[in-house]
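Translate structure to sequence.
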């Protein structure tokens, strides 16, 4: 097992913020900064102080608020002015860092910087020397090879430059996949090459963008190739398709047995908050944090998920929801779902149900789902009440009333023939059974239970729900239910629902 702890470097307030349609103001950045501290990231890039006065002031303010455990970093191009401003902005942090960068990729040096490689190398070395002269031993210097992902053909030049940058004072070397253009293994091999060439005390970082959707994979594999500092943004914010999503990498490493130094239980709440504050919604299929990311609709998946829902490892989920502060492993019902889903949904809604009842009402719920699509819980419980508590058949209860203690009148119809019978016994249910026997419909109960109900159900203030178990002619046992404000009436309704149910099963 890898015992090296990953070091999470968050760029939400810089890389994430600069890509927003409406960047955050100081107050909003303070709020996000607090979230980052609560999540436990080890370093925060608070901004680009040289970009404007507002960013400088924001970086200065956040540096003053930082604790003594978190590195506070300011970004600067490899020019003296930017580096000076970055230092002035973050120098009062307890753990300040100047982060300077320049592109070493052949394409960028030729067409963007329009400089020769040796001139670019000198700019990089001079920038690091200047940054180190300012920050001294009170902080550290990070150097990034912008567009490292494009440095396929000039790796010897890149490594030689990095060795001189390290001699100039950089202690963290960042290798960004500034634009993701190729497969993770291609990038990771070059990360491994840098790890092997630089001194062991130098921290290697990766900063992966998600243009092709592989930033998480590239970052995770870079860690196992020797990168320790992992740079990304909350919710995967950032330019174009965004930066590496910190949640995904943290959980992936956790699942690999790596000791991840983040407060993982804060992830879900943090994600929802960032979505609200950034105006960038979480799409429903987003890994870990999307509404559907822990949802099951296939009947086979639902069966496995429900059977293993209380286990740390589930049949069809990557983590237990509680790991990231969620409690909503969802079972949704569509035409592809089955009886297990119905059982779980109704049980979770707070109503008693047996698997036999779930099987019985599945056709009606599937028929509705074929027309509507995924059914909300209320739709499913509506069908449950209709199919379980209002069973149509040859029997129809008209009235049940008490005459005297031990004597009750039962008025009902059977195939439209009216019956008015007096039953005698100690309790209402026994008296009703006596009346039915006199009328030629003897019944035998196997089990009786009462469930107290708090509040309204289907618009009725219900106090009691009765469950009766009856044996049908085939030998199977079925459950019959009744619902009423009166316990006695709930018992009788359950009995008549049972009579119709058994007739329907003949």
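Result:
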């Amino acid at each position: 097992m890898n015992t090296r702890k990953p070091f999470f470097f968050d760029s939400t307030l810089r890389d994430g913020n600069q890509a927003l349609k409406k960047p955050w103001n100081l107050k909003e950045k303070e709020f996000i900064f607090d979230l980052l501290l609560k999540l436990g990231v080890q370093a925060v890039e608070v901004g680009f102080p040289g970009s404007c006065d507002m960013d400088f002031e924001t970086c200065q303010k956040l540096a003053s608020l930082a604790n003594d455990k978190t590195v506070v970093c300011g970004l600067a191009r490899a020019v003296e002015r930017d580096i000076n401003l970055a230092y002035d902005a973050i120098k009062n942090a307890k753990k300040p860092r100047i982060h300077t960068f320049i592109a070493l990729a052949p394409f960028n040096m030729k067409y963007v910087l329009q400089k020769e490689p040796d001139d670019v190398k000198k700019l990089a070395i001079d920038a690091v020397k200047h940054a180190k002269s300012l920050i001294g031993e009170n902080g550290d210097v990070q150097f990034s090879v912008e567009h490292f992902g494009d440095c396929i053909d000039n790796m010897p030049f890149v490594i030689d430059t990095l060795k001189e940058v390290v001699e100039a004072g950089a202690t963290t070397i960042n290798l960004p996949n500034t634009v993701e253009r190729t497969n993770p293994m291609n990038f990771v091999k070059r990360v491994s090459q840098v790890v092997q060439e630089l001194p062991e005390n130098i921290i290697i970082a990766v900063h992966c963008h998600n243009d092709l959707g592989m930033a998480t994979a590239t970052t995770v594999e870079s860690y196992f190739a020797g990168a320790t500092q992992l740079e990304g943004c909350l919710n995967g914010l950032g330019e174009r398709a965004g930066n590496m999503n910190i949640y995904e990498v943290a959980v992936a490493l956790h699942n690999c047995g790596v000791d991840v130094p983040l407060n993982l239980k804060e992830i879900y709440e943090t994600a929802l908050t960032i979505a609200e504050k950034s105006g960038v919604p979480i799409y429903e299929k987003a890994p870990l944090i999307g509404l559907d990311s822990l949802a099951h609709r296939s009947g086979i998946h639902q069966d496995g998920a429900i059977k293993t829902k209380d286990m740390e490892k589930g049949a069809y989920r990557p983590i237990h929801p509680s790991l990231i502060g969620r409690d909503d492993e969802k079972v949704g019902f569509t035409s592809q779902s089955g009886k297990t889903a119905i059982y779980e949904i109704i049980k979770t809604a707070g109503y008693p149900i047996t698997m036999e009842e779930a099987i019985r009402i599945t056709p009606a719920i599937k028929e509705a789902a074929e027309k509507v699509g995924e059914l909300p819980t209320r739709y499913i419980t509506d069908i449950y009440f209709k199919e379980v508590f209002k069973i149509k058949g040859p029997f129809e209860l008209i009235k049940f009333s008490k005459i005297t203690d031990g004597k009750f009148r039962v008025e009902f119809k059977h195939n439209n023939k009216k019956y008015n019978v007096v039953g005698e016994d100690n309790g209402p249910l026994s008296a009703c059974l006596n009346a039915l026997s006199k009328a030629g419909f003897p019944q035998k109960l196997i089990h009786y239970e009462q469930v107290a109900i708090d509040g309204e159900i289907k618009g009725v203030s219900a106090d009691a729900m009765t469950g009766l178990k009856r044996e049908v002619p085939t030998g199977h046992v079925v459950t019959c239910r009744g619902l009423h404000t009166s316990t006695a009436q709930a018992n009788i309704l359950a009995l008549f629902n049972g009579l119709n149910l058994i007739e329907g099963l003949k």
